[in-house]
Write a structure and sequence with these properties.
The protein is mainly alpha-helical. Helices cover 72% and strands 0% of the residues. The protein contains 30 helices and no strands. The chain has helices at residues 10-30, 33-36, 43-61, 74-92, 94-100, 106-126, 129-143, 159-166, 176-197, 200-212, 218-231, 237-255, 259-272, 283-291, 295-323, 336-343, 347-359, 364-381, 391-425, 427-439, 443-458, 463-473, 475-480, 485-498, 507-516, 520-530, 537-543, 553-575, 584-597, 604-626.
Length: 636
């Protein structure tokens, strides 16, 4: 969660005003207020306003170390003032500037220089050195592109031309990522924070407790279900961990899970929220724009893989509970009936959102706006266990949304730099050609190399930044090799997100480790074990398009069931438990059958054995379930 802002000085008042203004501008833009009032405003003018406000807040509210600050130094104050006035001028005179762009007036040079420098410094402060270094590397390449040897040679650019292009051009900083962030994602962040302010966060936790808390390993299942629910509206795996983890991790530790496993389960469950419709950490909207398809198509394609992801985690925590004799949660848990009786009204805004998105096929921003109105109505009318919307909390939502959007706007603006450089230098085409030529026609090798690149580039970056960067650098190579565009983009998103649980920089696992006080690296490796299926699912949906809802209903159901059986089998082998402790022979048998059952289809022999292997898994599970341990094959 974003640090709240208490207006007790001119600096903090300015932050509040600018954050509030960001939300209001977004609302006005999405209801087409300028057009209705007779004003012709370009989308780039709107984006310049939002970028100017976000950059100003970044230097007013966050210090050089990236943390919130209590006072404003003269350096940051000067940068904030210059940035604000330069971007406000850009928004005001954007039409004339576009007309004069070919003549390269000094105003564009000034705007480009200010935007380039302030965005890079803002990214360094808020997103960290990794993203700063990656974007900086592309900027350095652009300076020397014409001198790079070999096939990566690019177009010659003068420093002034480069700055003018990346810091002003609609194909660079003011391109699709910034448009999606300021027009669509901001509204969904507002929607999520409204829901929390109205008591939705506590409702989700209580609902997860009521649904799973009384079952075996209930404390971990609460984490999985609760994090999945939070992840539906959360824009960050790390914020999901720190929001739900403070409740679920102590529950798991008291229930009998080790500190390492408790942190790992929370990290994996929270990361899955970024892969689950409807929001997918803002990646769904960016993906729809990149692929030029409907948001509905993206959400539909992501649904079955997300279900399989959470199925694998749920099965694993259940089997770990059985193996380690972890009983149900000992908390005083409300019943599902009691939770729904008090919080049934939260279904109304979600119903509005889902109907608008998937039934009426509204644009995502319109659906989010309607759902936000619905939350305001029910939130003021009805509370949940003593928590409800008030005028004060409603106003605070505006402030938290504006300040919370700063990081994302900085990241997508920096991603615009990369997109611009790839376009103007020709590097995008060259990278695709080099990668495809390096592996030839070997699709498996290309996928493996791409997965490794995605994990490395994704380390330490937020969801939207990971996706935009990988969509421009890696996805074109996969598409060029013949992989379906939607499968290629989901593939890179999955492996970009796996960086959240993959050491050495596993942000979600490390955030969980700060709560458990466990070693971060051991938590990260445990998270990889618990989230193992997420490293396999992308390969499955690349080979089996039915997992992406591409095929007949029967194909989709059959491939989904086949994948679920395979995931269950491998998970049982990894944990070493199903109905009883499994010896090494049985564990290896479960894993082997599961691997053969996986619908990967890379090997012709395995392809014809998928269903026989799945049937064998089911038969073996039934034998173990209904036979006495001594009579069954134990493998001991």
């Amino acid at each position: 969660m974003t640090d709240s802002v208490t207006p007790n000085s001119l600096r903090s008042w300015l932050v509040v005003i600018f954050a509030f203004t960001m939300c209001i501008l977004c609302f006005l833009w999405n209801v087409e207020a300028p057009t209705r009032l007779g004003f012709a405003i370009l989308k780039q003018q709107y984006m310049a306003l939002q970028l100017g406000l976000a950059l100003t807040i970044a230097f007013l509210h966050f210090g050089a170390d990236g943390k919130t600050k209590d006072s404003l130094g003269w350096i940051d104050g000067t940068i904030a003032a210059v940035t604000f006035f330069v971007l406000m001028y850009a928004a005001y005179d954007f039409t004339w500037l576009l007309k004069e762009q070919a003549y390269r007036p000094w105003q564009i040079t000034l705007i480009g220089a200010v935007v380039t420098v302030t965005v890079m410094e803002g990214v360094r402060r808020r997103a960290g050195w990794l993203l700063f270094s990656i974007v900086g590397l592309f900027l350095v390449y652009a300076f020397f592109a014409d001198k790079v040897p070999g096939r990566l040679i690019g177009k010659e650019l003068s420093p002034l031309r480069l700055v003018q292009y990346v810091g002003f051009d609609p194909s660079a900083v003011f391109s699709t990522p910034l448009a999606v962030g300021t027009i669509i994602v901001l509204l969904f962040v507002f929607f999520g924070r409204l829901l929390f302010a109205a008591g939705g966060g506590e409702f989700f936790t209580d609902l997860a407790m009521a649904a799973t808390g009384k079952s075996r390993g209930g404390s971990a299942k609460i984490s999985v279900v609760g994090s999945a629910l939070f992840g539906l509206i959360s824009g960050s795996a790390v914020s999901n961990v720190v929001t739900t983890g403070v409740v679920t991790i102590p529950l798991m530790q008291r229930g009998g899970y080790s500190k390492r496993d408790a942190g790992a389960i929370e990290a994996v469950a929270s990361t899955g929220g970024q892969l689950s419709p409807p929001i997918m950490g803002a990646a769904a909207f960016l993906m729809a724009e990149f692929l030029d398809i409907s948001y509905f198509a993206v959400a539909a394609a992501a649904l079955v893989p997300a279900i399989l992801y959470y199925f694998s985690v749920f099965v694993q925590v259940d089997l770990i509970a059985g193996r380690d004799q972890i009983s149900a949660s000992d908390e005083n848990i409300l019943t599902t009936r009691q939770v729904l009786a008090e919080g049934w009204h939260f279904a109304l805004p979600f119903g509005v959102l889902l109907v608008a998105l998937f039934w009426l096929r509204f644009d995502p921003e319109d659906a989010a706006l309607l759902a936000s109105v619905a939350i305001v109505i029910v939130g003021f009318a009805r509370g949940y266990r003593g928590q409800r919307l008030t005028l004060k909390s409603f106003g605070q939502v505006f402030i938290e949304t504006g300040t919370g959007m700063v990081d994302l706007i900085l990241v997508v603006a920096a991603a615009g730099f990369v997109i611009g450089i790839l376009n103007i230098t020709g590097l995008g085409f060259a990278l695709t050609l080099v990668l495809v030529d390096a592996v030839g026609s070997n699709a498996i090798l290309l996928l493996l190399i791409s997965a490794g690149i995605c994990i490395i580039l994704g380390m330490g970056m937020p969801t939207s930044g990971v996706y935009v960067l990988l969509a421009t650098l890696v996805a074109p190579s996969l598409v060029e090799a013949g992989i379906q565009p939607i499968a290629a983009h989901l593939f890179i998103l999955y492996f970009g997100m796996m960086s959240m649980i993959t050491p050495p920089v596993a942000l979600a696992a490390f955030a969980a480790a700060t709560i458990t006080k466990e070693n971060p690296l051991s938590t990260g490796f445990a998270a990889m074990r618990i989230g193992w299926a997420a490293f396999i699912i992308p390969f499955a949906f690349v080979v089996s398009p039915a997992l992406l809802m591409d095929g007949s209903a029967l194909d989709i159901v059959l491939v989904g069931l086949l994948s679920a059986v395979a995931i269950f089998s491998i998970t049982a082998g990894i944990v070493g438990y199903y109905s009883r402790h499994l010896g090494m022979a049985l564990r290896l048998l479960f894993v082997a059958l599961g691997i053969i059952a996986l619908p990967l289809g890379f090997m012709s022999v395995a392809e014809i054995l998928h269903w026989p292997a799945a049937i064998a898994v089911i038969a073996l599970a039934l034998v173990l379930k209904f036979s006495k341990p001594k009579a069954a094959l134990s493998g001991q």
